[in-house]
C-alpha cells in the first residue's frame, strides 16, 4: 500500500519541538505541505511553528478531525500527553510515534488500541536528507509512516521491533558520532600546527565534500577509501592507525553497543 502526505491528513502533531519542527520544516522546503491541514498541540511552540498558519492548540473537538497523529513529545512525558489527547481522537485515527525507546504495544494501548507505527528519524529531515527507520506490524500504519517521512528522508523498514535499538544506535544517534569525529580531527589539526580557523575550515569542508561524494557517486565507502589511498603514502599511514585491531572498528563496536544497551535500558 502506498500513500502520500496529502492523502493521510489532517495530520496532528502532539509536540512540535526540535524533531517535530524539523519534519514540518522539511515538508515546507519540499513544497509538499499545506499548513492548513496541520493541527498542532504544543504548549510552547516556536515562532516558526506559530507563524505557519496551522491550527495551533485548537479546541479538543478539532482533534477529532485528525486522521494521522504524530507523537513527538519527549519519552518522559508521553503517557501524560497521550492521556490528555486520546479521548478526543477519531476511532480510526492512526498513531505514528517517534518517541525513542517506547514500545509499540504501550503506545497502542495508551491510544485505545488504535493502529500504530514506530519511527526513528534524524533531524536532517529539515533539509530533506533525513533517515527514518520504520517498524509497523499494521499495514495502514506502515503506509502512513512512509507517507510522512518519504518526502524528506531515506526510509528503512525494520522487520522486528527489537531492531529499533540498533537502528537508533546506527542512525538516530549517529550524526553526533560524526560531529565528534570532526571535533577530534579539528583538534588534532591544531596540535599539528594549524591555526584553529584553518583546521576548522579544512576539516569541515573536507568531511562535507567526502559525504557528498559518497552520496552522489554511489560508490562503496571502501572503494572511495581505496581511491584516495596511495600505497606507502600519508593516508595509508593514518589508516594503519585508524584501522588497526584496536582502531575505529573496535571503537565503533563499543560505541554502538553502548547506545544499544542504553536504548534497551530506556525501553525498560
Ligand atoms: N531530537 C532528535 O534528534 C530526535 C531524534 C529521533 C527521535 N526523537 C524523539 O522525538 C521526540 C521529541 O524530541 P525533541 O528533541 O523534538 O523534543 P523537544 O524539542 O523537547 O520537543 C517536544 C515538544 O513537545 C512539547 N510538549 C511538552 N509537553 C507537551 C504536551 N503535554 N503536549 C504537547 N506538546 C508538549 C514541548 O514543549 P516544552 O519545550 O514547553 O516542554 C516541545 O515543544 C522524543 O520522543 C525523541 O525521543 C528526537
Describe the structure.
With 268 residues, the protein is of the alpha/beta class. The protein folds into 2 domains: 5-161, 3-Layer(aba) Sandwich (Rossmann fold); 174-267, ProC C-terminal domain-like (ProC C-terminal domain-like fold, Orthogonal Bundle). Helices cover 50% and strands 13% of the residues. The protein is built from 12 helices and 8 strands. The protein has helices spanning 18-30, 47-50, 60-63, 78-85, 104-110, 139-149, 163-172, 174-191, 196-217, 221-227, 234-242, 248-267; strands spanning 11-14, 38-41, 55-56, 68-71, 94-97, 116-121, 130-135, 153-157. It has an 8-stranded mixed beta sheet with strand order 3-2-1-4-5-6-7-8, sandwiched between helices. Helix 1 (18-30) links the parallel strand 1 (11-14) and strand 2 (38-41). Helix 7 (163-172) packs across helix 12 and helix 8 (174-191) crosses helix 9 (196-217). It is elongated. It starts with 10 loop residues before the first strand and ends with a helix. The relative contact order is 0.10. The model has no long low-confidence stretch (mean pLDDT 96). The structure holds NADP nicotinamide-adenine-dinucleotide phosphate. Residues 14-20, 41-44, 72-75, 77, 81, 98-100, 120-121, 123, 172 line the site of NADP nicotinamide-adenine-dinucleotide phosphate. NADP nicotinamide-adenine-dinucleotide phosphate (NAP) is lined by residues 14-20, 41-44, 72-75, 77, 81, 98-100, 120-121, 123, 172.
Amino acid at each position: 500500500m502506498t500513500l502520500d502526505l496529502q492523502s493521510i491528513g489532517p495530520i496532528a502533531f502532539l509536540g512540535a519541538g526540535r524533531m517535530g519542527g524539523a519534519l514540518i520544516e522539511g515538508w515546507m522546503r519540499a513544497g509538499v505541505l499545506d499548513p492548513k491541514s496541520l493541527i498542532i498541540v504544543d504548549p510552547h511552540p516556536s515562532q516558526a511553528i506559530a507563524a505557519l498558519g496551522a491550527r495551533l492548540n485548537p479546541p479538543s473537538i478539532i482533534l477529532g478531525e485528525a486522521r494521522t497523529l504524530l507523537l513527538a513529545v519527549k519519552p518522559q512525558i508521553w503517557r501524560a500527553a497521550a492521556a490528555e489527547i486520546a479521548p478526543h481522537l477519531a476511532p480510526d485515527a492512526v498513531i505514528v510515534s517517534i518517541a525513542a525507546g517506547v514500545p509499540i504495544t504501550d503506545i497502542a494501548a495508551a491510544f485505545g488500541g488504535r493502529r500504530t507505527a514506530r519511527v526513528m528519524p534524524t533531524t536532517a529531515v529539515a533539509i530533506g536528507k533525513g533517515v527514518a527507520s520504520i517498524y509497523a506490524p499494521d499495514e495502514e500504519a506502515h503506509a502512513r509512516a512512509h507517507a510522512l517521512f518519504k518526502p524528506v528522508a531515506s526510509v528503512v523498514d525494520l522487520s522486528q521491533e527489537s531492531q529499533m535499538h540498533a537502528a537508533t544506535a546506527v542512525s538516530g544517534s549517529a550524526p553526533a558520532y560524526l560531529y565528534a569525529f570532526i571535533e577530534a580531527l579539528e583538534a588534532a589539526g591544531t596540535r599539528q600546527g594549524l591555526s584553529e580557523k584553518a583546521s576548522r575550515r579544512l576539516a569541515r569542508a573536507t568531511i562535507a565534500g567526502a559525504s557528498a561524494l559518497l552520496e552522489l557517486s554511489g560508490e562503496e565507502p571502501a572503494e572511495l577509501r581505496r581511491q584516495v589511498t596511495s600505497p606507502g603514502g600519508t593516508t595509508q599511514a593514518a589508516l594503519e592507525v585508524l584501522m588497526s585491531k584496536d582502531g575505529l572498528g573496535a571503537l565503533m563496536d563499543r560505541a554502538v553497543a553502548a547506545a544499544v544497551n542504553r536504548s534497551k535500558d530506556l525501553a525498560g
